[in-house]
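Handout for the seminar on molecular recognition.
Each group receives one record of this type.
Step one: identify the two inputs.
Step two: read the structure output and locate the region that could contact acetyl coenzyme *A.
Step three: write two sentences on what you found, then compare them with the reference statements printed after the record.
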Amino acid sequence: MAPSSARALRILALLLSLSSSAGFHLAAPSSHAPRRERRAGSISADASKRGELQVRLLGIGAAAPEKRVPNSELEELVDTSDEWIAQRTGISCRHLLAPEEGLSDLATSAVKDALEQAGVEAADVDLVIMATSSPDDLFGDAAGVARSVGATGAVAFDLTAACSGFLFGINTASQFLHNGAYETAVVIGADALSRWVDWSDRNTCVLFGDGAGAVVLQRAAEGEAAGVLGFEMHSNGAGREDLNLPYDGDTRELASIATVTTGKYTPIAMNGKEVYKFATTCVPKVLNEALENAELTVDDVDWLLMHQANIRIMETVAKKLKIPMDKVLTNLAEYGNTSAGSIPLALNEAVREGKVKKGDVIACAGFGAGLSWGSAILRWG
Ligand code: ACO
């Protein structure tokens, strides 16, 4: 490195250390004037412990396609039965996007409901994260959804972490709110895996459905109770082949210039037994890690909310954690596995039914392709 670059780096490091010791943060330049004065972050938790984040979860919304397909109808398609599907998975039904519907339409509807419940104006949203693996547009859906709801001042981007995506999105957005960079965020979890399953493969096609959910988060004011009490996230690419949706483009010669591929993906492939073992081993562990980071125990948990993949996975995890099933939130029976949509779809139902109340502690865990898995201990409201 040239001496002048090294000197510049030392000066930058000095400036950064001075700014943080003075209790303020260097914010990224913003293209629009802040609507409200952004407060300096007062980071109370030890970041290395992945503990409390000063955010509040203020509103939730969800949407699923109208088309409802019960197990019995899949008997026409593959060699399966309602009994097999219900017993092995807990799924009775799924909702499927129609050709004229977009995933962005579901996400837009979910965000509108979440903003309304939160009492937050779309124009006040600073950040939109859309967790999805099946966007309408491979370049990302978040910016389009932000525009559709009127969040025209927000920065918006997609995040891909399969069924862990919503949880990873909550943890990511919460960092920006906690450190003072942004005031208000929307996190969407949405997927339409009906687009990517092989409808002749009974091992996978019976499992998935389409849906979206969204949560509005705001930076908590001084003295307000934190909404993320602790979190943890992991991934392991060694398990990538146990669950994937790989690119498999057709080879094409461009005259004598180059050989390229043109886009196509192979349908979802899953080693169900390996994913089952991974989930029942890693999910209890990652929930315990987040509880430890939050300095809480299972006795402090009001609700357990896992990615809705299989009721047997939920039962095994709950048993390992010694949490009774009546504290487990699930709507898997109606929607199947909606990937990144599943956690907010289930939470939306529980909040709107009045089951989950303001102040309730919800231990949440996502897991899926990557392999990836993560948790957050949330306080609602
Ligand atoms: N209907 C009838 N029979 C079936 C079906 C079906 N839909 N699917 C499989 N079978 C058969 C198999 O062919 C097999 O038959 P065989 O014994 O003659 O070979 C038999 O049922 C048993 O199959 P298994 O795969 O052993 O069934 P298992 O009890 O493991 O259940 C399941 C399969 C439900 C997929 C389970 O392994 C599971 O839930 N795994 C986890 C999936 C998961 O959590 N995914 C989450 C992540 S999704 C994401 O990230 C996108």
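Reference statements: The chain is about 30% helix and 25% strand. The mean pLDDT is 91.
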